[in-house]
Design brief:
The chain contains 10 helices and 8 strands. It is α/β, with parallel strands linked by helices. The protein has one domain (3-129, 191-273): Rossmann fold (3-Layer(aba) Sandwich), CATH 3.40.50.1820.
Length: 274
């Protein structure tokens, strides 16, 4: 697996899949990037350069763990661009990775070409996902056999009285089948410190980021799943409205991992945009 060094000297790893023009992919979590796979076959259309965020996968644990903070990881993307020798990056971010990517766009606007935000996490731009939005969306799954237990756990989490994140896992998938269960087990974050410090105080500057995004002239794709309680369509629409030229796609029947729920549809939409 190829590596490079971040500005603070931390060794970071990435993997390369497919051929064609490079597309740098930034995972969420922070978790091992292997959960992205080849994004449902998107590697047939673009060369995917998939970063392992610091402290995850094969990237090193930094000496200064405060560098797990989201805004601190923006310069890791810039270091990767310099390492690859690319004048501009086409970028794809997923979930919490979109917070890193949007702050990269704000800090280095001239170095970003195509931009795709998948299951967009809106913390970096200050879009609030309310408990009511999550509950209303979850209620659409009430006929699923796993719903009662999962919804009870979701109610407790949104009320601040529970923390059974495992119980709500089915809400993140369009189908809670064997493939989804395997994907969930493999994709759980393995570095709790990185997760805890990702959103530490100072990680986000919503007003400055929103102002910078308003000046972006190039088009951006925001794609979320119809059932995605992490990045609900309502919140993704509010996020999309921050860009002058944004396309919002809500993938039918999908959760937070749309390339897993319907790879053909996901790849068709994303590759056409890219």
């Amino acid at each position: 697996m190829p590596t490079f060094h971040a500005p603070d000297g931390t060794r970071l790893a990435y993997r390369v899949t497919g051929d064609g023009h490079p597309l740098v992919c930034v995972p969420g979590g922070p978790a091992d990037s292997l959960y992205l796979g080849d994004l449902g076959g998107l590697s047939s259309h673009r060369q995917l350069i998939v970063l392992d965020l610091r402290g995850t996968g094969r990237s090193a644990i930094p000496d200064d763990t405060s560098s797990y903070r989201c805004d601190r990881m923006v310069d890791d993307i810039e270091a990767l661009r310099e390492h690859l020798g690319l004048p501009r990056l086409d970028l794809l971010g997923h979930s919490a990775g979109t917070s890193i990517v949007t702050q990269y766009v704000a800090r280095y606007p001239k170095r970003v070409g195509k931009l795709a935000l998948i299951g967009p996490g809106p913390r970096a731009v200050g879009v609030e996902v309310t408990a009511r939005t999550r509950r209303d969306l979850a209620q659409r799954r009430r006929d699923e056999p796993w719903f009662p237990e999962a919804f009870a756990a979701l109610e407790a989490i949104t009320a601040g009285t529970g923390s059974d994140w495992e119980a709500i896992a089915p809400f993140y998938y369009g189908r809670w089948d064997a493939a989804a269960r395997q994907h969930h087990r493999a994709g759980r974050p393995a570095n709790p410190e990185a997760v805890a410090l990702f959103g530490a105080e100072g990680a986000f500057s919503p007003e400055a980021t929103r102002a910078a995004l308003r000046d972006r002239e190039a088009p951006v794709l925001l794609l979320t799943g119809e059932f995605d309680v992490n990045s609900p369509p309502e919140s993704a629409a509010e996020f999309a409205a921050l860009f002058p030229d944004a396309t919002l796609v809500v993938q039918p029947g999908a959760g937070h991992y749309p390339w897993l729920d319907d790879a053909e549809r996901f790849v068709a939409v994303t590759s056409a945009f890219l």
